Amino acid sequence: MQGKPMFQNPILPGCHPDPSICRVGDDFYLVISSFEWFPGLPVFHSRDLVHWRPLGHVLDRPEQLPLDGIRASGGLYAPAIRHHDGVFYVVCTLVDGTQWSGHFVVTATDPAGPWSEPHQLEGEGFDPSLFFDDDGRAWLTATRLTGRYEGHTEIWLREFDPVRMRLTGEEHVIWDGAVRGAIWSEAPHLYKVGGRYLLITAEGGTAEDHAVIAARADQITGPYEGCPRNPVLTHRHLGLDHPIVATGHADLVETARGEWWMVLLAVRPYGGYFANLGRETFLTPVRWEDGWPMAGPVEPFHAMPDLPEHRWPVEPSCDHFDAPDLAPWWNVPRTPRERWWTLSERPGHLRLRVRPESLAETSCPSFVGRRQQHRDFAAFTALDFTPANEHAHAGLALVQNENFHVLHVLGSDGLQVVRREQGIDTVLAKQPIPPGRLYLGVEARGQSYQMRYAVEPGRWQSLGDPVDGRLLSSEVAGGFTGAYLGMYASSQNHPAEGVADFAWFEYTSLDH
Hints:
Radius of gyration: 23 Å
Number of strands: 40
Shape: globular
Helix content: under 10%
Oligomer: single chain
Low-confidence stretches: none
Distance between the termini: 24 Å
């Protein structure tokens, strides 16, 4: 491929796990898991498989998505997107919901929305996916635990009625792993290639033993035979020191020109085996041998797909909060049952109401955050805030979950850096601050996160020593997600009043 233009992996950096893709004409659409973050299930659009723009979210209305009280890394697991007869379908699983849990399906005629209310589907487990056969029938596959041994799962199949939005007919168990003792056979996707049914699954868990498995059958209900070369993609044999690990959870797509590609998740640890960026979306070409798909290894750089390059306008690195709504890269934890942020009360500012809810609990605190997408980055904001009492504080927060995060916040006794690790808060640095606008920042170089501040524009100072960023990795904090950072206000479970105004927020990659 010498001389061909190259693209760089990952195509969606930061926490963009469990990608699923479909093609409609010359357009590609992709969704990912979003766990406890609202809005849920981001939708992306591309015309060349490499450059993606956010379209919005599948679940962007509170009545669609009951994430109240959801644990960190609970919530929305492994969506799948498909298109049939002018309608887009997304199936997903709500895990550990306090109002309802389980599989559901939503539909739209435009992937940018609006999407329907969720239609709950019966059936156990997680990782559902839809397949529309050329005979007019539709099928749903999903994964469930069996209890036969720890981590043993099976893939089941039932017919799906897209008119009544329900499952019908007999259930069929079609797969439970490619090797004896296989664990976490999951993420099933069905395709029809060359007149035969192709099943793609993940196996080995989502850590370093992750792998992509292929099986096929003459009838959709099986029996399925495994590919003799399984796994058809894995990095498990490349070692923990490889720059890209944990490759798996794949979905296939064919271009209009007959090329096949695979989107999948993988991890880029740094500073040791610590993945602050979470599981990211990668792209790799697929070739066919003896009717089987073969892929990988996944490289940092690949030759571009045989498609016209289509770049979208570059988004500014600084959000001045001058739009009527929050940009699609902003999220809040869990479902907001009241509108505690506003872009209109003070035009050109994001205003957060100071509320008792805090990042140290599984609630919906006043936090508006975005994914950390680069190993080396800088983020800055401008804050206008007068604490109403000794409990109120506002500023920047870097978050993994309720027990592991870092606060860079202004309170009644000055500016502080507070590390929360294993549920224990430690004040790392403190500085008196005069009244008036305060500029806050964080500069990350690998696992060194240096907090910065300024009371006059451009006169930045460091506050305390660099914070060890490894507490923001799931390897330390647990769970499945990458780190978030953003703007925060709280009165820490005490009566609240007041607001915190943020004039802008800038995020810049420092990666080389």
